[in-house]
Recover the amino acids of this structure.
């Protein structure tokens, strides 16, 4: 599983990355987590509001910080 956290590096983006790592740890799932701050790459996903969460090249969350519980539901 490859997960990307899209965003400029703001507080919300960092929180989404933190929540993602916590969800993976809680679920016992191994995945690569990548932080993407390049605007062109973010736009390539069609994301207009960050932060966004991309799992295996599919945008799952955009424009909000997903909770650990939300992310657990997405990765299982």
């Amino acid at each position: 599983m490859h997960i990307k956290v899209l965003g400029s590096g703001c507080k919300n983006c960092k929180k989404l990355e933190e929540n993602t790592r916590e969800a993976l740890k809680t679920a016992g799932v191994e995945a690569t987590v990548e932080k993407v701050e390049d605007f062109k790459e973010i736009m390539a996903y069609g994301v207009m509001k960050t932060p966004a969460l991309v799992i295996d090249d599919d945008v799952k969350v955009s424009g909000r910080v997903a909770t650990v519980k939300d992310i657990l539901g997405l990765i299982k």
